[in-house]
């Protein structure tokens, strides 16, 4: 397994909560889509990616939560 692979244990409790909230928001927007695929989720995806990158960086540095 590479150092960039993330497990649930690599996230802090706060990060897990924020990721869960973002996933719920993405799902809500997905439900609101009328089938055209015109729902923009890029802002939520950027937030999600930023949280993952923070956890990945922390794991690479070997720091604990």
Number of helices: 2
The overall average pLDDT, rounded, is 89
Task: Tell me the total number of β-strands.
Answer: 0
Q: What is the rounded distance between the termini?
A: 20 Å
Structural class: mainly alpha
Main sheet record: none
**Residues in helix, %:** 55-70%
- Could you name the ranges where pLDDT drops below 50 across 5 or more consecutive residues? none
Structure notes:
- The structure is a single chain.
- The protein has 65 residues and is mainly α.
- 62% of the residues lie in helices and 0% in strands.
- Helix 1 packs antiparallel against helix 2 (42-61).
- The protein is elongated, with a radius of gyration of 14 Å.
- The two termini are 20 Å apart.
- The model has no long low-confidence stretch (mean pLDDT 89).
How would you summarize what this structure contains?
The chain has 65 residues and is mainly alpha-helical. It is 62% helix and 0% strand. The two termini are 20 Å apart.
């Amino acid at each position: 397994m590479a150092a960039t692979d993330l497990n649930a244990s690599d996230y802090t409790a706060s990060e897990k909560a924020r990721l869960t909230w973002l996933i719920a928001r993405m799902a809500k927007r997905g439900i609101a889509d009328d089938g055209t695929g015109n729902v923009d989720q890029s802002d939520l995806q950027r937030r999600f990616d930023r949280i993952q990158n923070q956890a990945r960086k922390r794991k690479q540095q070997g720091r604990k939560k």
